[in-house]
Design a protein that fits this description.
Layout lengths: L1 H14 L4 H24 L4 H10 L2 H6 L5 H16 L4 H13 L9 H18 L6 H13 L13
The structure holds fe (ii) ion.
The site of fe (ii) ion has 5 residues, from helix 2.
C-alpha cells in the first residue's frame, strides 16, 4: 500500500533526529496533522489518502535539515522527488501534494481544497496536543469553527485537567 511507503520514508527521517524531545514533538505533530487531515478530507468529500500523504510530508524539510527556514518550499521539492521515484502516485496527485506543502505557510486566500486542509490541520494539532487555547480572537474563532465542522464543541482549556 502506497501510504506505508510514505510512513516508512518519514519515520526513517524522524529516527535520524537526535534530540529525544524534538523527535517526540515532530512525531506527535506529523501524526496529529495526518489524523486531522483525514477527518477533514472525509468531511469535505476529498481523498483522505492524499490528505494524509500531504500531512506526513509537510514538514519533511524541517525534519531533515533541523530548521524551518524555507521548509515549505524545500519540503515541496523533497516530496515531489520522493513521490516521483516511488511511482505510485499520479502526476496530478503529486502536483496537489507538492503544492499544498509549498503553500502551507503562505496566505490562505489562494488556497485550493487540500491546501486548506493542511493549513487547518497544522493549526489544530498543537491545541489538541497541549489543550491550550489560542491567544488571539482570530485563533479562537478558527478553532471553534473547525471543531464545529466535525461536530465537536470546544469548551475551554479546562479539559486539560491541569
Ligand atoms: Fe506542521
Amino acid at each position: 500500500m502506497r501510504l506505508k511507503a510514505v510512513y516508512d520514508f518519514v519515520n526513517k527521517k524522524l529516527l535520524n533526529v537526535p534530540d529525544d524531545e524534538r523527535r517526540h514533538d515532530l512525531y506527535a505533530h506529523i501524526n496529529g496533522v495526518a489524523n486531522f487531515s483525514s477527518i477533514f478530507a472525509l468531511k469535505r468529500k476529498l481523498d483522505p489518502q492524499i490528505a494524509i500523504t500531504i500531512a506526513l510530508l509537510h514538514d519533511i524539510a524541517a525534519i531533515i535539515h533541523n530548521s524551518y527556514d524555507d521548509h515549505a518550499h524545500l519540503g515541496a521539492i523533497i516530496a515531489r522527488d520522493f513521490l516521483t521515484a516511488l511511482g505510485s502516485y499520479t502526476d496530478d496527485e503529486i502536483d496537489i501534494i507538492a503544492t499544498a506543502i509549498q503553500r502551507h505557510t503562505s496566505d490562505p486566500r489562494g488556497f485550493q481544497r487540500y491546501d486548506a486542509i493542511l493549513s487547518e490541520a497544522d493549526f489544530l494539532q498543537p491545541y489538541l496536543h497541549h489543550f491550550e487555547e489560542p491567544k488571539s480572537a482570530f485563533g479562537k474563532n478558527k478553532l471553534k469553527e473547525l471543531f464545529a465542522e466535525i461536530n465537536i464543541e470546544w469548551v475551554s482549556a479546562d479539559i486539560s485537567g491541569t
